[in-house]
Design brief:
globular; binds pyridoxal-5'-phosphate; Pyridoxal phosphate homeostasis protein; pyridoxal phosphate; pyridoxal phosphate binding
Length: 217
């Protein structure tokens, strides 16, 4: 299967108002070029160094989505390159983002990452920590929250649906509360093996890697 064919098939299986982010981590620039030719403008990377390299080399009309854990000492390298940071996963990171953006007089758009299954192996806030971080966001001048990102625990379709539903609920609850600097527009959930269920449960953006570019080794 070609990258172009993969993209066409995925696009056919999803509504037009859902954003498809092609997760290009570990893949060479020629692969990204094929996806670009097939119409993809949103690319996802999870390593700062890799995002920077591809940013320099690649088309300038691309929107780069940072989807990995972001160390505070690397913020400065990507705040002017990432279109959206999906992985706001600690108040420490929030405060440091605010500081760096203030220094550069620039706004940054982020998603709060939720660890919905409370897994030790994953980053992100637990549901009961959200009030605290949202209160902190209200005091920011530069960091904006545009929605939520989740990586659900591995499981079957039924458990996937359960975690997507719970995340959608949290998304709607935060939306109702009308926090300063927070607009719930983007619900980033679903990857290669579960994106169709995620869309059924309200995802507005899906992050697909292997389904487009083939297996990562
Ligand atoms: C790698 C990655 C993806 C893509 O996963 P696939 O199974 O290859 O579709 C999506 N989201 C995040 C956060 C990732 O790290």
């Amino acid at each position: 299967m070609s990258i172009k064919k993969n993209i066409e098939q995925i696009k056919e299986s999803m509504p037009e108002d859902v954003t498809l982010v092609a997760v290009s981590k570990t893949k060479p620039i020629e692969f990204l070029e094929e996806a670009y030719t097939a119409g993809i403008r949103d690319f996802g990377e999870n390593k700062v160094q890799e995002l920077i390299e591809k940013f320099e080399l690649f088309h300038k009309d691309v929107r780069w989505h940072f989807i990995g854990h972001l160390q505070t000492n690397k913020i400065k390298y990507i705040i002017d390159k990432a279109f959206l940071i999906h992985s706001l996963d600690s108040t420490k990171l929030l405060k440091e983002l605010e500081k760096q953006c203030s220094k550069n007089q620039m706004q940054i758009n982020t998603l709060i990452q939720i660890n919905i299954g409370k897994e030790d192996t994953k980053y992100g806030f637990y549901e009961e920590q959200l009030n605290e971080v949202l209160n902190e966001v209200e005091r920011c001048n530069y960091v904006k929250i545009k929605g939520i990102m989740v990586i659900i625990p591995k499981g079957n379709e039924e458990s996937n649906r359960y975690y997507f539903k719970r995340t959608k609920n949290i998304f709607e609850n935060i939306k109702k509360q009308k926090y300063q600097n927070v607009t719930m527009e983007i619900l980033s959930m679903g990857m290669t093996h579960d994106y169709e269920t995620a869309i059924e449960e309200g995802a507005t953006l899906v992050r697909i890697g292997e389904g487009i570019f083939g297996k990562r080794i």
